[in-house]
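Following up on my earlier message about methionine sulfoxide. Here are the inputs again, as you asked, copied directly from the submission form:
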Amino acid sequence: MAEVTLDLRHHPKDRAYAQLHAHMINVMAGIDDDIAGMATMSALLHHAFGHLWTGFYRVVRPNLLRVGPYQGTVGCLEIEFGRGVCGSAAAEQRTIVVPDVERFPGHITCDPRSKSEIVSPVFDRSGALIAILDIDSTRRAAFDQQDADGLERILRWFAGEGRG
Ligand code: SME
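Thanks, got it. Here's what our run produced:
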């Protein structure tokens, strides 16, 4: 098993995500467990890109997200659907890229060093929303469509893609 954490900060994003995706599939081989997947993906993504905060909020009740496995400083515990970037991505079931968090109405500040953010929905095999992935950066405009595409591909593991 290859648990080695990659540092991909100096790679072009498309190659970095392709490498990380292949690595994640290897590391997770034979593991059929959502929480283990969330914890491992948080660690891989966080250390590969050097983000401020990388982690999951799980859908624990209709319209309620609760913090799940993550890396970084302490995150807010619960977020209602429709609130902040995480709650908006959950309600709309789509990736939201926020280049400047100060310009996103209702943004929830867990760590004031956060300047930009990306949030992607996580679906299970039946297509149900089970969580969102949230990544925060200290840099403005750190995320773009390449991040959205790369993360959405990695998150398809929860829907069974490449899953042992
Ligand atoms: N900024 C997020 C809240 C979660 S944390 O930053 C970890 C939001 O607006 O939904």
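One observation from looking it over: The chain has one domain: 13-159. Hope that helps, and feel free to reply on this thread.
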